Amino acid sequence: MPSTVWLGAELQAITAAILGGASPSGGRGTIWGAKIGVFFMGLTKNVLIISRFSSGWQGIVLGAGLVADVPIDSLMNRKQVG
Hints:
Blueprint: H1 9-19, H2 31-50, H3 55-81
């Protein structure tokens, strides 16, 4: 029987890095930013667990946070270049 312990770990790792300031287009990011991203992601997951949301909804919320952060990163890059 396959283990499901690490199921969805990719989404969590990518979300933590992006929330921490790593650019989806590559080239920058810091370990401290990643730690901040992990903190906020953990805080969000804990709030969802305490609020009794299912694990499926937790993945949806993390994915929505990732999708919302990509345009924000794009706007920030435009302001730095221009």
